[in-house]
Amino acid sequence: MTDVRRTLRRVRAGVTPAGRAVICLGAFATLVAAFAGYDEFRLIAIMCALLVLVALVLFSMPTRVRARLQLHPAHTIAGETGVGDLEVTNLRLTPMYHPLVSIPLDAARDDLRGAQRVHVRMPVLRRGETTVERFEVPAVRRGVLQVGPAGVRRTDPLGFFQRHAVWAQPVDLYVRPRMVRVESLGTGSVRDLEGIPSDQISMSDLSFHALREYVVGDDLRHVHWRSSARTGRLYVRQYHDTRRSHTVVLVDDDPAAYADPEDFELALSIAASVVMRVALEQFALTLVCGPQQLAGSPHQVLDAFCLSELAAGSDLRLAAATAARMAPDASQLIVVSGGGVDPGVLSEVRRTFPDDVQFLAFRADPGSGEESPAADRPHLLTVSVLEELPGLLGAYVRGVVL
């Protein structure tokens, strides 16, 4: 019975009020003509049947249209509008007069405030003509928004039947977290030939450290001949070991760490701002945020933030272990969590990585009111609003450098 009701509902939706009126009039005229014998009603019944038949034939003719949806670009920032193009080519033998194309947005999103469709009025399209119309997607929250499929409400010339014809397949709009520009993370240069100087001493590198006496087995290419000639002993150069800068960004997706889901959005905005800084400095990058685990370009990481969600039962320590396996050559660890995170857990996360890995943690906690790091936790910064991040991070970097 459910399938029957669904079929009847679909048929009823495909017939317009005008079509239902003509069908009912034809049925009534047929009954009157059959039982009362009025020829006038028989003529009305025949006319109604012909009208419905003609409308049905015209309505069943295929619509030959080639259409495509494109977003420029395929991502935007939370709170900003997206821009897209609808390209339509008329392949019919007859012109199309100002079709109204409907582009539905993701109905599951609760932040569209009723604007769940975008309507685009096309110009007159003659045979073989192509047009491109631009449209805007209203500002939405972070996430992945499905735009489309694009289609039109198709009717016959008499307006008796209607259906929604799909013209273009849907596309995804990646809505990234809000970001602010921050200063350098204080990790030095990042090129392979200009890595971060570490405290480890190497006999073969580019960052000169000191001279020492030659011992058996040293490479003679590193002998400092001028000092050797002056002292009468062989001296060789020592170097600082350098490495390629590799930043690991670890975002806590445990709901218990956040007092409010909006705090998680702030945490993602902090992490995204750091990723943008990493992109400017051309560091290698690894992200771990729940199931979003990847080592890739900053654009891939920012798109991964669009898919990030809170997940009950998540463990920041397990995520840190995963990140350590993914990035054994990490030179910097950035951890972002909420105001409810246990400082002891952050300490365990820090110990997951080698001691020479630079560590910095952020707490997204709008209700904290802290303006500077606590004396006993200098590497833990509390961010109340995103606009505070540049100042806090800049003061931290200057303090570390000084």
UniProtKB/TrEMBL annotation:
InterPro entries: DUF58
Keyword Membrane: yes
Superkingdom, natural source: Bacteria
Residues annotated as domain DUF58: 211-275
Alphabetical list of Pfam families matching this protein: DUF58
Name used for this protein in its record: Uncharacterized conserved protein, DUF58 family, contains vWF domain
Keywords per UniProt: Membrane, Transmembrane, Transmembrane helix
Parts of the chain that traverse the membrane: 21-38, 44-61
Source organism (scientific name): Nocardioides szechwanensis
